[in-house]
Amino acid sequence: MGKMEELITKQTCQGANKGFPAPPPLPGPATNCRRKGSLMKNGSAIRGNNCAAKATRALWDRLFDGGYKTDVIIKTDNGGIICAHSNILGMASPVLRGMLKQAKGFGHRRPISIHIHGVPQDAVRAFIRFLYSSSYEKEEMKEFVLPLLVMSHTYVVPQLKRVCEQQLEHGLLTIENVVDAFQLSLLCDAPRLTLIAHRMIVMTCKAVRETEGWKAMKKSNPALEKELLESMMDEEHGRDIMMQKEKNRKSNEQRIYLQLCEAMEALVHIFRDGCRTIGPHDKDLKEHQTPCDYGDCCKGLELLVRHFASCKLRVPGGCIHCKRMWQLLELHSRLCTDSNSCRVPLCRNLKEKIRKQSKKDEIKWKILVKRILRTKRIGGAPIFVSSNSNSSP
């Protein structure tokens, strides 16, 4: 036991003899110590600075509003004056620190005067308040976000610059101010804001070109207007290409679903009525039959069925033609409304197999069936519903 612990133990014993309560035990091992800078609230650890943050901001705001022992006068447009403390301004902004040093070098007596022109006085006041407490009012940020962005860049206050960019990105960027924001982002080295504003201008080109910001840019910076117009044309051309591609894709899908519809009806036709040289086992085919309504589809299915009947690799996946036949048969079984009396081979067996399929495969098939039924209502088509009831020997 160390000397300090011996001393505490001795004092504890003396205090206990005099009737004083025993002091709390010494801290336990280092593993039980809480992280430095954290406190306990309701049994859970919280950061210590969270408790003081609100009070600290209020203190800095009171110092700014009260103007206690200020030594700087900031002059704004229309004769406005804002009082501030040189130490705080110099700590928050290296540019303001340089201006203050330069003013002192010229032998200026206190208070020192500096000028911030070109922005509203209330915007300057919101800027100086941020230098004190790193906080802002929502209404002031909403009204003066662009002037604050300019001042944060001009006077090198990166924290405020990030706040302005985030506020613009998450709601304050509108059709009315997007052109101004785009031009300022180029001047203030804000590449992410430049990209977001440019995208918004291109996507809402018709509305943006009616704003006052666009008209002012057209007069002051025609080269930039030309670049934006070219971007709009490229975007519109690209959009037209994408729309055409999407139209072609949907057209191809529609064609495929119609072909599947026809294949399903032709399959029922073959095993119900018979066609050319193939048909149900209990029906004699005529030598001179009139051409059926399915044409080449029926002819292709006839060849596929004959191959399927004679192929030695009829297992699914063993032969590409047999695999296609298995898929057509399974699709039929999913669309068939009466498998018990259906004359298409394996319809009932495949119905039983479908119930044991994995959920992933089942979802894919359901999507396909839904799209086919949407293209052409096979489930309600007379040829499909009556595929077995109207058969004749």
UniProtKB/TrEMBL annotation:
GO biological process: protein ubiquitination; regulation of DNA-templated transcription; response to hormone; response to hydrogen peroxide; response to salicylic acid
Keywords: Metal-binding, Ubl conjugation pathway, Zinc, Zinc-finger
InterPro entries noted in UniProt: BT1/2/3/4/5, BTB/POZ_dom, SKP1/BTB/POZ_sf, TAZ_dom_sf, Znf_TAZ
Domain BTB stretches: 70-140
SMART domains with a match to the protein in the record: BTB, ZnF_TAZ
GO MF term set: calmodulin binding; zinc ion binding
PROSITE patterns, per database record: BTB
Superkingdom of origin: Eukaryota
Pathway note: Protein modification; protein ubiquitination
Protein name: BTB domain-containing protein
Species whose genome carries this gene: Gossypium aridum (American cotton)
High-level lineage: Eukaryota, Viridiplantae, Streptophyta, Embryophyta, Tracheophyta
